[in-house]
Amino acid sequence: MLQDTASTPPADPAPLDPMSTGMPGAGFSGSSDAAAFNQMGFEHMIQNMDTVAWTVLVVLVIMSAGSWYFTFVNFVKNMVIRARAEKVIRSFWETANAQDAIRFMEEQPPNEPFSKIALDCAQAAAHHQRHEGSRLVEALNRSEFIDRALRQAVTRESAKLENGMTWLATVGATAPFVGLLGTVWGIYHALIRIGATGQASIDAVAGPVGEALIMTAIGLFVAIPAVLAYNFFNRINRNTNANFDTFAHDLHDFFATGSRVGEMGGKH
């Protein structure tokens, strides 16, 4: 008997493979994601930067280089000062002869601040003594003359401690905004490209915008170390300035009255 083909149901068609037919599917979503991710990279950003973006990036690099330079220099300088301070002060007060103590201070390195304060005080006392009976002595007594010399010396050495602090403060305050300027400029150009191509899908927007946001991240990476360094050195400088003042008061008592009133070494 012949089989009735009309009553036989047709077989289900085989499922189509998106990869083999070229239809949009999972394979193409992976490649589009990779392309979008590539557009967010630093290398792609460098290749598509214009003059303004390059200027912003160069400014951030200069800011970062200057911040790390002053951070290293100030760290070494403060560590050396702190390491020598106790020895210099103790040796000065423990030297029995004032001339030997002054000679010891003269042998210290040029960047040692406590010895320079002591030498300025000793020179002021000697200068005032040499001009006894002159109009200088009539205008200022010994205590006032020495006090003025000490104030100038402390101010000078304190100002040296501030070297680079203005740069660190400026970078910490402005670097995020410089990076934000680069981001705004990058997003502006990204929107122009999107409008020109007519593509407003998420994969078309995410790449250029993510690329532009790299500038903000660079600005933050520049600013955060500068702020931390500024706060660190600001605290160290306050302690050093307090030691300057204490040492200056003891020097004033010693050279003005001939004896030192203080905790270290008692009276000399």
Structure description:
- The chain is mostly helical and 268 residues long.
- The chain has one domain (50-251).
- Helices cover 78% and strands 0% of the residues.
- The protein has ten helices and no strands.
- Helix 2 packs parallel to helix 10 (202-257) and helix 4 packs antiparallel against helix 5 (98-106).
- The longest helix is centred in the last third of the chain and has 56 residues, at 202-257.
- It is rod-shaped.
Please give the radius of gyration in angstroms.
36 Å
What is the overall silhouette?
Answer: rod-shaped
Based on secondary structure, the structural category is mainly alpha
Total count of strands? 0
Estimated helix fraction: over 70%
First CA to last CA: what distance? 135 Å
Assembly of the depicted chains: single chain
Report the portion of residues in β strands. Answer: under 5%
Q: List the secondary-structure elements in sequence, H or E.
A: HHHHHHHHHH
Contiguous helical run count? 10
Number of domains: 1
Q: Tell me the major beta sheet.
A: none
* Poorly predicted runs of 5 or more residues: 1-7, 16-30, 263-268
Mean pLDDT: 78
